[in-house]
Design a protein that fits this description.
alpha/beta, Aspartate Aminotransferase, domain 1, 16 strands, 42% helix, 15% strand, pyridoxal phosphate, Trans-sulfuration_enzymes, lyase
Length: 500
């Protein structure tokens, strides 16, 4: 896919029925997507699978409803029966029930827009939707598809292949400390759930969010802590260790754990990970770290965490057509044995075809990281020198540089994420830039998006929301660029043309 071509509205990125991103080529399209404008939605052939229900899931749910005599019901299909039961409990007291049909499971309820939306939100946060490939197989078996997506899969034992690569990336034991799951979000949810259950038994219920994190990680802490108004703490400044120390001094015996990303999304900030870990250990709190933005091939986070949650959709599934994740246990953690027991039972299964597809393309993981590590500094240098660019955030931003380099596996292991702001109208730049535009990151192709509009449209469009963003240091017009494997001069040329 050329970096020099505009991609039509709604086309999948990549152009596979299982592609995880979808082109939103203009700000009008972005806003139309967020506001459910029929003129935009009509052209959407896909979208990030946790946010946009895949057409195969819709067809499979409709077919299952007909087969079960539930035509007046709506059905959400889940990645397991356990996930279906969790969804049913979440929807209570709405009249929902767990259903099974031809090896699929899910939850059915009388048609109701509010219940449907609540179910979608739960599945989005927990990463427990049915895989599009499993839905494809169901439709194929039912005779509703003439065939399945033709794609290369690994010719061997896929679990060992994937676990081995992930284990080497983290420096972990593939047999005992690496656990695969169906999505990066489910990895985060499972890590949190396991730690929360262990800590609740000790009377600890408070959780700390360190830095502005990905929206669904924030939602897990805001919705799944015991009493969110009391138990959810947000510290926006990842560098303020003194504030964290004061919080532990005041509530140390009640704090269950701390969650952060390294670097954070989308400001690409890196806390002093070793210091935060030492503080957690001193007070008996669990420390969960998500290194997805930079990838564990670039940074060594496991020695400074109890659990690592990683989206394998990013970089490992470098072609951009697999949703997967992993939880990795630090064997030196005082909680290691406990988490080896607790985590597996909270993870959702990675469907066999997704696993085979991931195992096939994971050989491109390290080459992609090497390529973007070479390209990113050149992109940053161009942006920092351009008169229209106000601020550039990346792993070696002066505010984070020292903390990041303490973790970096090499001085040039910088990762591929760059966020920046510009002078002038956002739409003037975004509409012109000839790069793939859509959600997600960590593919062979670059991806750019007006991240705050896509992730936090509710905040962008209200004065109170904009104030929340300002307090967190998040510009509403922030652009997030995931540098891909295209020739770096093409990426820079596309940016230069759009900036004028």
């Amino acid at each position: 896919m050329s970096a020099l071509a505009h991609i039509p509205l709604g086309q999948r990125i990549p152009a596979s029925i299982h592609g995880v991103s979808c082109s939103l080529p203009t700000m009008r399209a972005v806003i139309g997507y967020e506001t459910k404008d029929p003129g935009v939605v009509l052209h959407m052939h896909g979208g990030y699978p946790r946010f946009v229900q895949h057409p195969y899931l819709r067809r499979a749910a409709e077919h299952a409803a007909d087969a079960l005599g539930l035509k007046d019901h709506q059905i959400w299909l889940t990645s397991s029966l356990r996930a279906a039961e969790a969804l049913r409990a979440w929807l209570a007291p709405a009249p929902a029930r767990v259903i099974t049909h031809e090896h699929l499971g899910g939850v059915a309820f009388p048609a109701d827009p509010d219940t449907f939306a609540r179910a979608k939100t739960f599945l989005q946060h927990t990463g427990t939707l049915l895989s599009s490939r499993e839905a494809e197989d169901y439709l194929w078996r039912a005779g509703l598809l003439a065939g399945r997506q033709e794609e290369e899969v690994f010719d061997g034992y896929a679990p060992a292949r994937v676990k081995g690569v992930v284990a080497r990336a983290f420096g972990a034991d593939p047999a005992g400390d690496v656990f695969l799951t169906n999505s990066g979000m489910n990895a985060v949810h499972a890590a949190f759930s396991a730690a929360d259950a262990v800590q609740r038994a000790r009377g600890r219920t408070r959780w700390v969010q360190l830095g502005w994190l990905y929206l669904d990680t924030i939602a897990i802490l805001q919705k799944f802590t015991r009493e969110p108004a009391r138990d959810y703490h947000f510290q926006s400044d990842v560098f303020d260790l003194r504030a964290l120390e004061r919080l532990f001094a005041e509530h140390g015996g009640e704090i269950a754990g701390v969650i952060t990303e390294v670097p954070t999304n989308p400001l690409i900030q890196t806390p002093d990970l070793a210091a935060v870990c030492a503080l957690c250990r001193a007070h008996g709190a669990v420390f969960i770290v998500d290194p997805t933005i930079a990838s564990p091939l670039n940074i060594d986070v496991l020695p400074h965490a109890d659990l690592a949650a990683n989206s394998l959709t990013k970089f490992a599934a470098c072609e951009g057509d697999v949703i997967a994740g992993a939880v990795v246990v630090n064997p030196a953690s005082p909680w290691a044995e406990t988490f080896r027991r607790e985590v597996p039972g909270r993870l959702e299964p990675l469907y066999s075809r997704d696993l085979g597809r991931l195992a096939e393309q994971i050989s491109g993981y390290a080459p992609l990281i090497e390529k973007i590590n070479r390209s990113t500094p050149a992109v940053v240098e161009f942006l920092e020198k351009h008169p229209r660019v106000r601020e550039v955030y990346w792993s070696l931003h002066p505010g984070s540089r020292d903390n990041y380099l303490k973790l970096a596996r090499a001085p040039d292991a910088v990762g591929g994420m760059v966020s920046f702001t510009i002078d002038g109208p956002l739409d003037g730049f975004y509409d012109r830039v000839r790069l793939p535009k859509g959600a997600s990151f960590g593919m062979n192709n670059s991806l750019i998006s007006p991240f705050i509009y896509l992730a936090h449209y509710d905040l962008v469009t209200s004065e109170s929301g904009r104030e929340t963003l300002r307090r967190a240091g998040l510009p509403a017009d922030l652009l997030r660029l995931s540098v891909g494997a295209e020739p770096v001069d093409e990426i820079i040329a596309a940016l230069a043309e759009a900036l004028g």
